[in-house]
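[job 4471] stage=fold_predict status=RUNNING
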Amino acid sequence: MTPKSNRQRFIQLLIVNILVIGLVIIWNRGQQRESIQVAIAKGKYLLDLPAEIAGYPAGYLLSSARIKQVTLADFGKHADLAGKDLEFLAAVPLSDGEARNWQDAGCGKLNCAFVTFFNYTDGGTVEAVVNLDRNEVVGQWANTNARPGGSSEILPKAVAIAAADPQVAAVLGEDIGAIDPHMIPMSGWLGDNSCRDEWCVDLTYEDPNGTGRVFHVFVNLEQESVARTFYTRARADRSAAKPLAQRNAFTDGCHEQYSWNVCWEMTANDGINFRDATYNGRLVFSSAKIGQIEAWYPSWPGGYRDEIGFAASVPPFGGTEIVDLGNGFEVRQIFTEFTRWPNCVCCYRYEEVIRYHADGQIEFVFVSHGPGCDDVAIYRPFWRIDLDLDGPDNDQVWLFEGTQWIESLEEFETYPVVKDLSPEGHKLATFDGDMHYRWSMERTDPLGLDEAYLFLLQWGEQEGEGPITTGPGDTFIPPRQWIDGEALSGENIVLWYVPILNSKKGGPWWCMPDPEPDFTPCEAILRGEPAGELQQPSAEELADLQAQIAATPTSVPPTTAPEPTATPHPIDGSTAEEIILNAGCGACHQIGTMGEAHKVGPDLTYIGLTAGERVPDMSAEDYIRQSIMEPNAYLAPECPNTPCLPGIMPQNFHLRLTDQQLEMLVSFLMNQRGPGPAPEQIGSGQPASPAPKAVSAGKVATPPPATVLPSTTIGILIILLVAAISLFLVWKNRT
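[job 4471] inference complete, writing structure tokens
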């Protein structure tokens, strides 16, 4: 063959190779898009599960596209919204009670929608109410404190951000669509990074290695980046409690019995809204609902803002029940995140209950069946109760402080609630004329750790009367941002009640249904009791109260910041064991007999023997101390599931531990030398490797074994094969 023919053949083969490379790139991108679309479809299935199961009437299922178009057209008329980067999140129908604020604009049950956009320009949300009959926006406002939940509209963006992250790919592989989501996208926060103040959602997946653990991907939607990935514990299926046959159901209605008359209706995100409750024909409250349930995990540190309702992260299951108690009745509704409960890992399962007693007593009850996503958890349901004793006006408010009842002339919050009580055991008194109620929290915690916050506000428009949008985590917002010095006693008042339920793994079990075959739910009860006129303590009672005060240490509220800040909770504990429990260390590490093995972090059972060998010229004490204070300074040689990754361990222990607590932990860990001879050092004797924060997490992770080659690998093999054939043909022609 002539040189000219050789050149032509070479050019032809080169063109073929370029075409193959181009086609492989296009194909690979298509595979990645298809994978992301599959992941989105799976997540959307979980989000849409309640509506698909229940077969709701047409009024519950809305045309989001039409509502979005109507709302954006109206927003265009507002100069303050010009140029704002707004993203449509959701539209849900208003219940009859929620629509009352807009009844003059023609809103009733299900004919108006609550619409939410996220405002990327200013933060928070822009919210509106749309009359569906007239295709007209009848209310619109900005909510800069809002941190909304996940939705099917935001799901594609969240999944695409996760799929593009190298650390996520290292754990889940490139084909993210092949992994089943563990839960729907949950509105969440982290206490030690940008997800404390900014809007983040958590995507959760089963560990591809088959351990049963949950792999979390926290996505910061404002920065369009992955904020953190980490594992939480697994739970084996329970043989003693098979999955319950449930149906997604609820029943709006009214009930009259034992001199009480009350109505209720399910809302999209605020649970059941109980309304217009009267006793002997006199109004007691106009509205009572649960706006959110915070699940806080010290080991992350962070948690979720759960919502309950027909369009919420934890939807209603099993129907609304009316139970005759003999001396009263209760209306209760259960909400379950998964139909496989209790054979699931996080198993969010809540109950909203109000009990109406024949003597006029009333109890607002919240029940958590746990266990949550990790072993140490704190649940905080946010009850909003619009108290209207004998009508909305002129409700008097008195708080028992120290040794006497004091009238509350301005809005306030108070903590503690179960301590510093009146001689009769009450914390709060409300009354209007001859209609008196005293309020107290029933103590139910077996370890006596019951506590709660009370927030007393003057009723105000857009202060929770309509749909409540969740706020930044761990800030008690809402309602804390609405306490602004307005007059209280003698006005139309609203009571927010936020109990704090601490889970315990170990006897006595609490909020943790793990010890088979028993279940150990926890509950919080706010009781209102009819009473006579308010009386100050007698001289004898006063002496007893003063003696109690002298013997009781002052309670410090766990959170006092009026708005989200970068300062996280201090860790309680006066011994190393208490500190380790409260910090959630055992959720990631085995430490002797504490914690669980084979989780996220390395086993620390022998750390007292091996710490001195990790970093040259660094003592064991200094290595342990720096590993607590700066977790990313060095990475341990080996972790249970993947190579140890930076950013997994909380980064804020230097802010949460006192110097004394830190030295306690260092001393405790130095004494961890195992039950017998030390094993060979983890990682075949390799020292810890430096891992400064700037190092990409993706560079230290390796993907799990896969039975199917990822599309990128297949594409590279095709390119190499075509190139090899081309080289062979060129060589053959030259010979």
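[job 4471] summary: DSSP finds eleven helices and 30 strands in the chain.
[job 4471] exit 0
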